[in-house]
Design brief:
Layout (H helix, E strand, L loop, with lengths): L1 E6 L3 H12 L5 E4 L38 H7 L3 H7 L6 H14 L3 E2 L4 E7 L2 E6 L3 E9 L4 E2 L13 E3 L14 E5 L3 H11 L8 E5 L20 H9 L2 H10 L1 H5 L3 H17 L6 E4 L2 E9 L2 E8 L4 E7 L1 E4 L3 E2 L39 E3 L4 H4 L9 H13 L31
Parallel strand pairs: 1-2, 1-6, 2-3, 6-17, 8-15, 9-10, 9-15, 10-11
Antiparallel strand pairs: 4-5, 5-6, 7-16, 12-13, 13-14
Helix pairs in contact: 1-11, 5-9
The structure holds flavin-adenine dinucleotide.
Length: 432
Amino acid sequence: MLDLAGIGIGPFNLSIAALLNETNELEYRFFDNKAEFAWHPGLLLPEAHMQTCYLKDLVTAVVPTSRVGFLSYLVDKKRFYRFLSTDISMISRTEFSNYMAWAASKIKNLNFNEGVRSIHYADDHFVITTEQDVYQAKNICLGTGKKPHIPEEFKAQLGTKVFHACEIMDREFDFTNKRVAVIGGGQTGADIVLNALHHYWGKPQELYWISRRPNYQPLDEATFTNEFFTPQYTECFFELPELSKKREVKAQKLASDGITSECLKQIYHYLYQHFEVNGERKWLHLLPNRTAQQLTPYNDGYAVQCYNSLNQSEEILDADYVILATGFESVLPHYLEPLKSLLHLSKDGSLQLDRHFNVQWQHQADNQIYAVNAGLSSHGIAEPQLSLMAWRSAKIINHLTGKNVFDLSETQNFIDWTLPESTQPLTLTTAV
Ligand SMILES: Cc1cc2nc3c(=O)[nH]c(=O)nc-3n(C[C@H](O)[C@H](O)[C@H](O)COP(=O)(O)OP(=O)(O)OC[C@H]3O[C@@H](n4cnc5c(N)ncnc54)[C@H](O)[C@@H]3O)c2cc1C
């Protein structure tokens, strides 16, 4: 009987396993259907960097002395000094992925090649059926990530020339002399455009970058914005009324969904050097304010029908390839089907989380279902990000053990998001 079974070994559950590995508190085992650890391998583009600092790794924020922190990785790989000389804080996604794969090789009880098919509840424990075996666990943690979001209007055309960006590194194709449309103005769209500019898939004849946003908008990385990615803000967010939570998440969109300034600069510098200085024909077409509405097969390719919200006009582009950088969405995993009637789902069918990332369900008093990457609406914008993953992992372990295995106390944030009720009303003085 396991104390905790982890479903999925992406970064978030790997972080929990890494912290469990630091203690002898619980019997655990984690499962993943992949043959080995891989971080969004279909999107591991050669020119792609992190949006977050390397110190926001699996463990450092909670156990800086851990053997599986990013700095230990650098030392183990004998490149500590050269890394420092690069003077970068946003490392490549390839390096972070390699780091996590290295960490996974050092953490025990990780079962790869063992996807979870179903989870049942049997009175006082869960029965987990994997591709290989059947396990019993008192508690589980769901960490199987999100699914690619494909807008309804494009589904009928999916195929070798129209596909979601998350598969781009898994497929064989050639953009040489082709017209390519990238739909989506977030970081993934930007990363694909940047790699296409460098002819990674051959030199396209035309490259259209379609974004619904009013411009190619930067990630908000300002000092005070970073306060949204702190435990104290997350705790405060959890207490807010529903309406305030929705308003906060909407207002903070660019703090998590913008494009890094570095990436935007790289694209701009390319345009300047190639199209201004070298005088090359301009083959990148930047199309913000456009909503791609329909894809119709046309002349061996596709007619991409867009609505330009700037002048309220219809525009049609011809493309041979259409790459959908249209993001990811949460869906209830199929392996939860046997438990579905016991879950207290929200009106839109999603999981509802309590403070300790534990799912509201019928037998919550006896057995816990934790979920990571599922709390955007309950815990705020840090939830789908790496920023607080080590803290969240520790919080889950502390809750599960009923002890302060990890000390999560902190000095006070600079911003008073709310004042404690006991605080005396401020005395306002009128300036004369
Ligand atoms: C391209 C990209 C770049 C990102 N870069 C950053 C960044 O720089 N900074 C940042 O803060 N955030 C970033 N994010 C957001 C976030 O950190 C990642 O999406 C992160 O991978 C989420 O981790 P996860 O563990 O929830 O899910 P995932 O990484 O999706 O992992 C889920 C795992 O579950 C496994 N699985 C699925 N179904 C089953 C099953 N039935 N049984 C067993 N296993 C299963 C999958 O194989 C997978 O390994 C990025 C996201 C993307 C898509």
